[in-house]
Amino acid sequence: MEENVVLTARGITMTFPGVKALEDVDFTLRRGEIHALMGENGAGKSTLIKCLTGINDFEAGEIHIAGIDGPVKNHSTRDAQNVGISTVYQEVNLCPNLSVAENLFIGREPMTAFHTIDRKSYNKRSQKIMDDLGISVDVTQNLENYSLAIQQMVAIARAVDMDCKVLILDEPTSSLDDEEVEKLFVLMRRLRDQGVGIIFVTHFLEQVYAVCDRITVLRDGHFVGEYPIAELPRVKLVAAMMGKNLDDLEEIGKEHENTAEDKLEISAKGLSHTGTVKPFDLDIHKGEVVGVAGLLGSGRSELARAIYGADKANTGSLEVDGKSVKINQPIDAMNLGMGMLPDDRKAEGIIQDLSVRENMILALQAKQGMFKPLSRAKQEELVDEYIKVLQVKTASKETLVKQLSGGNQQKVILGRWLITQPDFLILDEPTRGIDVGTKAEIQKLILKLAGEGKSILFISSEISEMLRTCSRMAIMRDGEKVNELDHDLTQESVMKAIAGGEQNND
Amino acid sequence: MTKKSFWGRLTESGLLLPIVSLLLVMAVNIVFDIVSGNNPFNFFMITLQHTTSNGNVLYGRIIDVLNRGSEAAILAIGMTLVVSSSAGTDISVGSVMSLCASFCCMLLAGYGVSSTSTLAVPLIVGVLGGILMGALCGTFNGTLVAYFGIQPMVATLILYSAARAIGLLLCNDLIVYVRNGSFAFFGSFLGPIPTPIIITVICIVIMTLLLRKSALGMYIQSVGINPRASRISGLNSKRIIFITYIICGLFAGIAGIVASSRITSADSNNIGLYLEMDAILAVALGGNSLGGGRFNLAGSIIGAYTIQAITTTLYALGVSTTQAPVFKAVIVILIVAMQSEPVKAYMKKRRLAKAAREGGAV
Question: Coil, strand, or helix at residue A355?
Fold first, then answer.
């Protein structure tokens, strides 16, 4: 084994029914490095990680870990922990109603001579662990009192304290704001300097360049290459991930035609939903892409939900295509030509145990009514068409949608709505957790739909992608629509509008 | 893709294990008959027997299984839908059967009459009345589950305990006998074939047609898997759950009429007793998850007949009525374990290992 190497994986191969998820993949992690694992959705990142942590049972290949003779094969996450591999996921898997200290030591509490839990010593030890890592918390407080970032750091601290040599961070930054991300990075660097090997999975390119030392790129289940960070500039990374040599994002560019027509598609007056969004006015023209910007929890999703009837509006009036309408539930909105891709794909998007075909025709079938079933031939024709248009990667139409990667699941839901030929489409975070290539595809699709005279309400956490597509932006803050920007749209102007007059530091 | 073999389709449809379970029970019969020196295929023998009341009728163990299993099979249809849509079970169906039987007999005999040979109202009124009573009970259950969000077990517990009592109330605390040939028809024979078998077939055909010719099946599964996502996609999740409970009640009504017709009376205390458990077990034996979502109607029906086949087999083996449940339990444990995930995973591993040993491609 090469010196300083803590983990090597060689020739890892893993098949899911009908799909080769990994084929002959190599991965090498050294002591004291932060190693980015990059690839588009479905490239095999999660599968590889699950092979390392014992969740997946890979078919061929070997994993070696420094200090252990012979290949290691983990059969559970506990096995993995025993050989020094710990994982921290995007969703924190800790108990929010226990104290920080309890979370650190759950399952391995220090005991007194009488076999009771030694609270005093473990609070002390916990405090020391956290202080050593430079995380300022009171370990006796319940975990839920702290921000998600701190919770994540506690999860990391727990992993590190369990003597881990390899720390896997799977999309840890997805729900963090910039400041929190920076704090996480400080912690990561500190751990690196202590000699921990860190595998970092993320979709944010900037973050890769901010903390990583090395990058391994996967594509379609194959190993593309391993590069020191300095040798792989951003454009080359994107090209390696996508397997092509052009930057699709550049191609869209900042300039886009404003396709808005004069006629109004949607006109909301004083619409509100008690407790989530205060009364707002919003007009959307035919062929227009309107963005909704704001922090997470600012009411940007709720604004869309009130229009669509996902949360029935308590006050106000709504006109669709010039006619006053009443929407009590989503099907009413759909019958008026609307569609909504919700932000929480798992909870409100996919029907996990139904096939790709059933998932895609669901909305159209619901619109047609129970007693007018689409013929199987018609279903297959529609589904084939949109699988092609959206380039959904699936083994077959009858594959259960839960077996697809996140990005492809998102495309299936997008297909579900496109099949209904909507006039007005709400897209709530359509690109969250999706790779760069698919992001660009979705942005292009939005512009194409607008070009066809359809209206789009586009909600995203990434201002840059809204800048690329929207001609107007509604700004949300604390459940209220505070502003609307229609000219001079720049990252800076939008950020300023979101932040408002006073500086917000928490 | 190559055309799938019959075997491949069977495995994929999820019917393999339910069918194997049923075959297993049949195999026990064959072994028993061989050991006791009978014709090994006694179980499958169908003969014509002459009866004084119905002329020549079909007779044999397999006919007995199909006939006696009718009520459970009919209940299993509705139960499958309820389980799928709401991830819960309707435990009231047995009691509802009894209530429907009582209501039907009360209509046919007239209130307060304990025994009659002439019908007070046309037969069709009594029968439809009984079935509609089932639908009404289903509506009640469905309202509680779908619109009040009460857990299915708790919501249906109400009628589970109350329905029988309501039935007794309707019958003035009497066992009402309707000794009329036309009413006895539903529990006896149509030509040589037991009527319950025909009624069950009709129920299955109607339900299958409804599932094939409408989108109901997809709606129910979609709502069962993810009600929130289904709603966003335009389904009225609550209404669909509500409908499945009505259907379940309706079938309980039909089963109640059959059970009552068999004994030409409304015996509130015994009709449908513990049958809700058989219906739930049938759904589980059919390979359906009681956690809701995807369902397999054919599996449930096979499951219902498997349960009856076990019972009939035990009686044929000479096991006493009082001890039968013990043996039944043992067999059910075996079948359920056979379908459990760890066993399935183990079998798969063995298959793969075998394939690897033989050097064939997996």
Answer: strand
Listed residue (A226, A178, A181) closest to A33, CA to CA = A226
Mutate: best of A75, A351, A355, partner B, most B CBs <10 A: A351
Pairing of strands A166-170, A197-201: parallel
For residue B228, list chain A residues with Cβ-Cβ distance below 8 A: 347-348
Residues of A in contact with B213 (CB under 8 A): 371, 373
Chain B nearest C-alpha distance from A424 (Å): 14
Residue of B nearest to A359 (CA): B222
Strand boundaries in chain B, DSSP class E: 47-51, 55-59, 115-116, 176-178, 189-190, 193-194, 265-266
Structure tokens at B165: 């009592």
> In CATH, which of 1.10.10.10, 3.40.50.720, 1.10.3720.10, 3.40.50.300 is domain A260-337+422-498?
3.40.50.300
Q: What is the pLDDT of residues A1-28, one digit of tens each?
A: 567 899 999 999 988 876 778 999 999 9
Q: Where in chain A is the domain with CATH 3.40.50.300?
A: 5-249, 260-337+422-498
Name the amino acid, one letter, at A348: E
Determine whether the interchain pair B229/A373 forms a contact, defined as Cβ–Cβ distance below 8 Å.
no
Are A61 and A26 spatial neighbours (Cβ–Cβ below 8 Å)? no
| Reported ipTM | 0.86
Q: Which CATH class is domain A5-249?
A: alpha beta
Chain A residue at shortest CA distance from B213:
A373
Are A333 and A385 spatial neighbours (Cβ–Cβ below 8 Å)? no
Q: What does the alpha-carbon distance between residue A63 and residue A14 come to, in Å, rounded to a whole number?
A: 13
Q: Amino acid identity, residue A214?
A: R
Residues A351, B230: C-beta atoms closer than 8 Å? yes
Mean pLDDT across A298-313: 92
Tokens of A167: 């720390």
Token pair 């009628």: residue: B159
Q: What is the pLDDT of residues A175-210, one digit of tens each?
A: 777 778 888 898 899 889 988 999 999 877 778 889
